[in-house]
Design brief:
Number of strands: 8
Strand content: 15-25%
CATH architecture: 3-Layer(aba) Sandwich
Structural class: alpha/beta
Distance between the termini: 35 Å
Largest sheet: 5 strands, parallel
Helix content: 40-55%
């Protein structure tokens, strides 16, 4: 494993430095909520999905098939993956190149979902994620934060939403990013991703037993964060 700078910059609040884990499928608002929550707490925001997307981006650039586990594993020793933080904002570098702005395309999203099922990738990224969050004062967002990466997290949330609402949110995100396509295509891609994430043999998408469930279908990001803060306040 090569470089993975972490540069923890969470603010001292004179209170416990909690680890907060947020899991859930795509389109439930995890990233928006996690960023807002981290900002309110003065914590580091760890977008673990960006790490898998960066891996997918590297595979696409190298011409490898993300579904070819042997080809994926062969790439890992040559890969330098870094996540650097500046004032709480993460920048992702692959072999020294900032790829942060290239990680949200439909192609990378699909490849990330596929490559995340490769055991060698999950094993390679696990210590990187844990190193970033080892000091606490972190809001970690992903699909197996509360079950695999931070099973002892102080607070765990699992976000859910109606599938149609999730597809609409994801489609708006793609349109805003300039990757517009038919809504039906976005909805189908989301359903396929759900199937892959929930059925993979290694660290499937499932709620942690002690996670607090929040349905975000009819809630704004601020309302979701308010509910989370009420839970977290009891831990501080």
């Amino acid at each position: 494993m090569r470089g993975h700078d972490v540069g923890h910059v969470a603010e001292e609040k004179g209170a416990r430095r909690l680890t907060v884990a947020i899991d859930g499928p795509a389109g439930v608002g995890k990233s928006t909520v996690a960023k807002l929550l981290a900002s309110q707490l003065g914590y580091l925001y760890l977008d673990t999905g960006a790490l898998y997307r960066a891996m997918a981006w590297a595979l696409i650039e190298s011409g490898r098939d993300p579904a070819d586990a042997e080809a994926v594993a062969a790439l890992l020793p040559t890969l330098s993956l870094q996540m650097q933080f500046h004032h709480g904002t993460a920048m992702v570098l692959v072999n020294g190149r900032d790829v942060t702005g290239e990680l949200r395309t439909p192609e990378v999203s699909a490849a990330a979902s596929t490559v995340s099922a490769v055991p060698a990738v999950r094993a390679w990224l696990l210590p990187i994620q844990r190193q970033i969050g080892q000091g606490g004062a972190v809001v970690a967002e992903g699909r197996d934060m509360g079950t695999k990466v931070f099973p002892s997290a102080d607070v765990k949330f699992f976000l859910e939403a109606d599938p149609n609402v999730r597809a609409q949110r994801r489609h708006r995100e793609l349109v805003t990013a300039g990757h517009s396509g038919p809504f039906e295509e976005t909805s189908a891609d989301l359903a396929s991703r759900d199937t892959r994430d929930r059925s993979r043999a290694i660290a499937p998408l499932v709620p942690a037993e002690d996670a607090r469930h929040i349905d975000t279908s009819n809630l704004s990001a601020t309302e979701v964060v308010d509910q989370m803060m009420a839970v977290i306040a009891a831990k501080l």
